[in-house]
Amino acid sequence: MTAYLIKGASILGGDPADLLLSGGVIAAVGVGLTAPAGAETVDAEGLVALPGLVDLHTHLREPGREDAETVETGTRAAALGGFTAVHAMANTSPVADTAGVVEQVWRLGQEAGHCDVRPVGAVTVGLAGERLAELGAMADSAARVRVFSDDGKCVSDAVLMRRALEYVKAFDGVIAQHAQEPRLTEDAQMNEGAVSGRLGLTGWPAVAEEAIIARDCLLAAHVGSRLHVCHVSTAGSVEIIRWAKSKGWNVTAEVTPHHLLLTDDLVEASSLGAYNPIFKVNPPLRTREDVEALRAALADGTIDVVATDHAPHPVEDKETEWGAAAMGMIGLETALPVVQLAMIETGLLDWAGVAERMSATPARIGRLSGHGAPLQSGSAANLTLVDPAARTVVDPRASASKSRNTPYEGLTLPGKVVATFLRGRPTVLEGKLA
Ligand SMILES: [Zn+2]
C-alpha cells in the first residue's frame, strides 16, 4: 500500500506539521518529515487536518429505495464531505431489524469502500412500535450494532422505550430517539408558530419534541441506561437536555447542520419561492431564537454532536405540492461547510471544537473504534484535509448523492474538503473521488 506524506497541514487549525501515513496508521507527525521511497506527497499548505468525520445519522436508503440512494452513492457523498464513517439508519425496506439486514448493509459498505458503514438497528420490529426487534442478535452480528433507533418514527410507547433502554445495557448500546409525540403532530406540516398561522399549514409544536425528550431522559435515568436524542430542534429541548446533564444522567444529543442555519420563515419567502418543499423536513425548521439556542448549546457542549440526517428523496417525491412532499434534505457534502459558516465564522467554535463534535464524540457515542482518534502517531489514518478559504456555490447537480434535495442551492458556502483518507488510503484527492 502506498504511503502518503502530507506536508504542512494545520492540525485542528494549529501550527503546520507533516503527517506520514503508512500501513493504515499515522506513522509520524512532525515538522520537516522526509518522504520514504515510493511515498506520494500531498501539499497541504493552508489546509486544516481533522480526524475523519463520523456521522451518527445517515439515511442510505438501501435496501429498498435505491432510486433515492444506494450505499455506494451515499458513501461517495460521505467521503467527499470528509466522513470516514457513517451510521446508516434502519428505516429501509426491509427494515434493518434483524442480524441479516444489518449484515447486508454492513457488507455493502465494505464492498463500496468509500467509508465505514455502521448500521443502526431498529428498536421495534418493522418500526411498528409494537414489539422489540432482535437487538441482541444485531449487536452480536458481524455489523456489531451499538446504536438502535426507529428514526423516522418515535418510540412513543413508554413501556417499550423503557424495555429497549434496559435491554441495550447488556452490550453497551444506546437508544437514539426520534422525539416526536405522534398525537401532537398528526398531519403536521411545519413549525407551529406565526408563519404556519399565516400560511395555513398545520403546525408542529415544539412541545411534541420536548415532551418526549423529557420523558426519555427520566426513563434513561430510571433504568441507568444511555439515551441519545436525535436532531434536537428547539430551545426548550436544549433546556431539558441541559437539566438532564446537570443531574449526571447519561444523555447525549445531536443537532443537524440545517437546524443550525435555516429558519421556518423560508417556507413563506426564499429565493427558491414560497411553499418550496425543499424546506420540508422532520423535525421542521424552527425560529431564529431556536437556531441561536442550538448554536449556543453546541458551543457549550449541551448538544454533543453534529449529525447530518442526510435524507435523500427522488425528484418526484420532493418536487410536488407542499402537503404531498416527502420530508428531508441531503447533507453529507454540505455538513462541514454549514458548520464552518454557522459555528466557526461566528466565533462560537474553533476547528478543535468541530473535530470533537463531528468526529471524536460521535465515534464514542456509537462505540465505534478506530475513528475519532487524535491525529497523532499510532492512530488509524482516518482523516480529512479542508481548505477553509475556499468558497463554493452549491449546485445540486454536482452532488455525488443520487438525490438532489439540498436546501442550499445557489448559496455560497465556505470551506471545501480537499482530501479524505480511510486507514491511510485516499478516498478523496484534490476534491474528487480517488
Ligand atoms: Zn428523525
Automatic annotation (TrEMBL):
Protein keywords: Hydrolase, Metal-binding, Pyrimidine biosynthesis, Zinc
Residues bound to Zn(2+) 2: 151, 178, 231
GO biological process, one term: purine nucleobase catabolic process
Binding site for substrate: 59-61, 91, 282, 313
Residues reported to bind Zn(2+) 1: 57, 59, 151, 309
Keyword Hydrolase attached: yes
Molecular function terms, GO-annotated: allantoinase activity; dihydroorotase activity; zinc ion binding
Cofactor: binding comment: Binds 2 Zn(2+) ions per subunit.
Function: Catalyzes the reversible cyclization of carbamoyl aspartate to dihydroorotate.
Family as reported in the entry's similarity comment: Belongs to the metallo-dependent hydrolases superfamily. DHOase family. Class I DHOase subfamily.
HAMAP family: PyrC_classI_B
Protein name in the entry: Dihydroorotase
Native species: Sinosporangium siamense
